[in-house]
Structures are given as structure tokens and as C-alpha cells.
Design goal:
Shape: elongated
Radius of gyration: 21 Å
Number of strands: 12
CATH architecture of the largest domain: 3-Layer(aba) Sandwich
Strand order of the largest sheet: 2-1-3-4-5
Helix content: 40-55%
Number of helices: 8
Largest sheet: 5 strands, parallel
Low-confidence stretches: none
Number of domains: 2
Structural class: alpha/beta
Distance between the termini: 29 Å
CATH class of the largest domain: Alpha Beta
Mean pLDDT: 88
Length: 229
């Protein structure tokens, strides 16, 4: 098993230690936070490497529901499991509406928890095979979400994602305007070269540290475009 990183947010220290120990025995790397502010700090520091969050609801400073909102706003694809004593159906519905992938009430069986974690990480990794990463940026071809150069998440149009897909499948090779038009536009549509140029300019603003001096999205005058790594 790969050494996946889990953020455990739990203020009951004995329970937190027990869960941490069992996760580590299963070869997970564990980040432990005992209150909301510590959890948010850990999350911001390790944003790109956290694979899953185990999140209590009733914790000091920032409650679990509010944390879930913040986590999902910064990393929408992050799997989250609520682990809480709040066992009302209304609480479970609220947690799932916020984007949590599972909601487990205390007391719980540790073996079942570990199995749910393993299954969720496997499922998420399979879904994330549709994600292309370069530098600190990401493109999710399934959800149309991208992470820009500043770590912000944006949603692009179907055609923009289609163009990104074409370019990133031909790394370091030129994709002609004719190829792009054939793949992304219908025969009765007549896009101008300027339309594609505008997409490329937008990609530079999203993904390039210096858009006026691009290193990834390159225009080849009179021919087309290429994506360079």
C-alpha cells in the first residue's frame, strides 16, 4: 500500500491516539488536529498531499461542518468521512449535503472504518486518473475543474477542457488549428483563429506564472499550438 496521508480531526485524545495507531499500522501517514483552527492550519500546509480527512463535528474553535465547507472549497475532490457522535438523521443529511463521502457515528468498529477508508481512497484514485497535473496546477477532465497557478479552483467550459485535453495528450508536439477545429467544433460551425487564440490567452492567465512570457502554452505562428512540460 502506498503511504497515503490522512488528516484526522478529533478532540478526544484517547480516541485520536487509537485511530492514529491503527491507521499507521495500516501504513497510512497521519496528521492529527485536536481543534478546528489547528485542522485548518494543517490542511493549508499539506493541501496538495492530503488524501483523505477523518472529521469530527463537535470540535473546539471551528466545527466540523464549517471545516468541511472550507476544505471542499479549496480541494473539491478531497474525500471526507465524518466520524461523530451526532447520530441524528438530520445531522447525517447535513454532512452529506456539504459534500462528505461518508458519515460514521460513534461508537464504531475500527476494522470497518479502515475498510471504508481503503475503499474510498481506491475509488477516489480511480476517479482522479482523469486529473492531469503539472507544477502546482491541475486539470480535471471529468469535472471541468482546474487549479490555477495560485491554487484557486475554477470551472471551465466543455470546449476549453476539450482543447486542454488535446494539447496535454500531445505534450511538446504541435497541434494544428485544423485538428483543433475538427475535434471541437461541428461542421456547420465556423470558428475563427482568434477564438482559439483567446482560449490560449486565457490558459496562460490561469496556468502561467508570467502569462506574457509563457513556458507551457505556446503559439506556433501560422500552424497551431503546443503544450510544453
Amino acid at each position: 500500500m502506498l503511504n497515503h496521508k490522512i488528516l484526522l480531526v478529533e478532540d478526544e485524545l484517547n480516541l485520536a491516539k487509537t485511530i492514529s495507531l491503527n491507521l499507521e499500522l495500516d501504513n497510512y501517514s497521519v496528521l492529527l488536529a485536536i481543534n478546528g483552527r489547528e485542522a485548518l492550519n494543517q490542511f493549508n500546509i499539506h493541501l496538495d498531499t492530503i488524501d483523505l480527512v477523518l472529521l469530527d463535528v463537535m470540535i473546539p474553535e471551528i466545527n466540523g461542518f464549517d471545516l468541511c465547507k472550507q476544505f471542499k472549497s479549496k480541494k473539491p475532490s478531497l474525500p471526507i468521512i465524518f466520524l461523530t457522535a451526532k447520530n441524528q438523521i438530520s445531522d447525517k443529511i447535513e454532512g452529506l449535503k456539504l459534500g462528505a463521502d461518508d458519515y460514521i457515528t460513534k461508537p464504531f468498529d475500527l476494522e470497518e472504518l479502515l475498510l471504508r477508508i481503503s475503499n474510498l481512497i481506491k475509488r477516489t484514485q480511480k476517479e482522479n486518473s482523469t486529473i492531469f497535473s503539472f507544477g502546482s496546477c491541475e486539470i480535471n477532465f471529468k469535472t471541468y475543474e482546474v487549479k490555477d497557478i495560485n491554487g484557486n479552483y475554477l470551472t471551465l467550459s466543455r470546449r476549453e477542457i476539450g482543447l486542454l485535453n488535446l494539447l496535454t495528450k500531445k505534450i511538446n508536439y504541435v497541434v494544428s488549428r485544423d485538428q483543433i477545429i475538427e475535434k471541437l467544433w461541428n461542421v456547420n460551425e465556423n470558428p475563427s483563429s482568434r477564438t482559439i487564440d483567446n482560449y490560449i490567452l486565457n490558459f496562460r492567465k490561469i496556468f502561467e506564472p508570467y502569462p506574457k512570457n509563457p513556458k507551457h502554452f505556446i503559439s506556433i505562428r501560422g500552424v497551431g499550438y503546443k503544450f510544453i512540460l
